[in-house]
TrEMBL record:
One of its GO terms (biological process) is regulation of DNA-templated transcription. Pfam families: CAT_RBD, PRD. Keywords: Repeat. This is PRD domain-containing protein. It comes from Enterococcus moraviensis ATCC BAA-383. One of its GO terms (molecular function) is RNA binding.
């Protein structure tokens, strides 16, 4: 039995199914529904995303912010992938890939192209996943009239690869968590304003910082330079880039390394997004 706990919009509903809180997505699934109503398990083609009860509201808000079309696209990609790869993917991909595609479209519309420096490795070492990414891009173009750069095939493949792994705890979790916390605090301090830590945008920013830290500790940082994009970011978003540069300087000095410009650009993009969407006006 699927019981409605909260209706976010006509396509996103927080429900309880067999004692587990879930986000349910489907066209019209929330229409004319209220708390306590029963949703038929077979009446609508749905996506279920299991979540922790204590994070349900925040998670639901994040899901509701992403246009339903991107979840539909992700579901199409997952269906193709599971048929081609012959195994089930982690349901977390419905959020991570949908969010990525939504953000990729936003970047494309603004003329910001962030290269995937693992393109060659993914294309050559994960040919099946890369091919699915290519098929997905073509399907997005013909079926949804959404055109993204060919490089996005490797990004889609990257999400498919991540969704194949389990949820094992990382032995380096403590040092990663420490660096994530340091970066986040540096950004909050350097911006000179309070940040709404309960917002979905803050949660998204944390996710991207975690990805950066993972790349850092696995020696997989984006190495090649893109001077034009770097200059463009400084011109468009100087405050965010200054904050990202402070993070770079800290890591360079603390870990005796050199963070590449591409990583500064990528971090700057997400800092700017956090500033635009999640800052609390304290004046």
């Amino acid at each position: 039995m699927i019981v409605v706990k909260k209706v976010l919009n006509s396509s996103v509903v927080l429900v309880e199914k067999e004692g587990q809180e879930m986000i349910t997505l489907g066209k019209g699934i929330g229409y004319d529904k209220k708390i306590g109503d029963i949703i038929s398990d077979s009446s609508v083609d749905k996506i279920f995303l299991p979540i922790e009860a204590k994070k349900s509201s925040q998670f639901a808000e994040l899901v509701a912010e992403i246009p339903m079309e991107f979840f539909e696209i992700t579901k199409e990609i997952v269906t193709i992938a599971e048929e081609e790869l012959s195994y089930k993917l982690n349901t977390s991909i419905y959020l991570t890939l949908s969010d990525h595609l939504h953000f990729a479209v936003e970047r494309s519309e603004k003329g910001l192209n962030i290269s995937n420096r693992l393109y060659w490795e993914i294309k050559n070492y994960y040919p099946k996943e890369f091919h699915i990414g290519e098929v997905a891009l073509e399907q997005m173009k013909t079926k949804h009239q959404i055109e993204l750069p060919n490089e996005e095939a490797s990004n889609i493949a990257f999400h498919l690869i991540n969704a194949q792994s389990g949820n094992l705890e990382d032995q380096d979790g403590l040092k990663k968590a420490k660096l994530v916390g340091t970066i986040v605090n540096m950004v909050r301090y350097s911006l000179g304003q309070e940040i709404d830590t309960n917002s979905v945008h803050y949660s998204r920013f944390i996710t991207h910082v975690r990805f950066f830290v993972d790349r850092f500790f696995t020696n997989a940082l984006l190495q090649e330079k893109e001077d034009e994009l770097y200059r463009q970011m400084w011109s468009l978003y100087p405050v965010a880039m200054e904050s990202a540069t402070k993070v770079k300087n800290y890591i360079d000095q603390t870990y005796h390394t050199q963070i590449p410009e591409n990583e500064i650009v990528y971090l700057g993009v997400h800092i700017n997004r956090l500033m635009n969407h999640s800052a609390i006006d304290t004046n």
